[in-house]
Amino acid sequence: MSKKIAEVEIEAGVHDRIETPVCFPLQKIASLLGDKKAVHLEIRGVKIPLQVTGQETLLQGCFILPYAKAGGTLKGDIVVSEEEEETGFSYDLKEDTLIVNYEGNVVASYHYGRLLSKPYLYPVFSTNGVRVTEDGPKDHVHHRSLWVAHGDVNGYDFWAEFNDSGRIEAKNVKVNSCGRVFFEFSSSNVWITKSGSIELFEERTTRIWRLKRDVLLDLEIILSNPEKDVKFGDTKEGGILSIRVNEKIKVDNGGKIENSFGGINEAETWGKRAAWCDYSGIVDGKSVGITAFDHLNNFRYPTYWHVRNYGLMTANMFGVSVFTNTPKNRGDYVLPRGEELRFKYRVLVHEGRDSGYIKSKYVDFIYPPKVEISEVRV
Hints:
Layout: E1 2-11, E2 17-25, H1 30-33, E3 38-43, E4 46-49, E5 51-53, E6 60-68, E7 73-81, E8 89-93, E9 97-102, E10 105-111, E11 120-124, E12 146-150, E13 167-178, E14 182-192, E15 198-210, E16 214-224, E17 230-232, E18 238-244, E19 256-259, H2 265-269, E20 276-283, E21 286-294, E22 305-307, E23 312-315, H3 320-324, E24 333-335, E25 340-350, H4 355-366, E26 370-376
């Protein structure tokens, strides 16, 4: 048995929308949702899964909008039912690894064991089954697939993995939401020196969306220290978002780098500022790519990119003097005690998409469609 409890209006905005993740507040109808087994949207007769997440005061509904034409407004209904809903995502939370699956296939794994120098995602798979990242390649063993680190935090190195390097330790990893639409987990990390001094506290939340031919990974990173100032030093050795691609798609093996301004490969992208940067190529006959999106609210947007033909791609907003080759133009930043530095990124894992498509997905990220509950049906 199902029941329509509310009507929604979806405004596409000035862009066409194709498979766009959307979230909107549900506080108006929190009391009507109760403990219903399944919630979905019905738009023009099409049933669209709606995943409810958050607490009552911050309750959200999230879905993937199949299509909306620029300038258009769609109307739909929020429908609840007693039926058990199939779960697209599933997971296996172990002592040192979180494995995320979609319909039985691994999407990504998060490694956070105490013996590791830093927590990271590996492998990361495309929808056509290709592993798009590399973990610990021989030329740079500290490059850990998809990770967060920096080479100068209060003078300590959390980028390399030498005997005297700092470590980023995951203290608590928990699953926040697992459903048909997305999977989300959080990781509370401490950046600790070899002597045991905590230089930085990090809260990292990762949300994974599965589209027909794309995987999206949304990362929100909050850095702080309630007890002392934190200085992020000017160095190219770092990246608040860092990616090492599969060796078969690096430029040295026939792959391609492209940024949001049309720069191609390392000569035109290294040390340059851009809203996004993409790395793509062919693996065993299959086209794949991985794009990192910098959010317009991030510190020093658009970020500088430390991106190399050998397969590295990082968003680094601190190494300004190195990237601009002007020693006096320092990129150091001091985060005051008790304050927060927040970053938001989206990673697009795709099957060899062109720059026009990537641009459309970037617009979805920074300017998503707007959704409002226009009528509540008691």
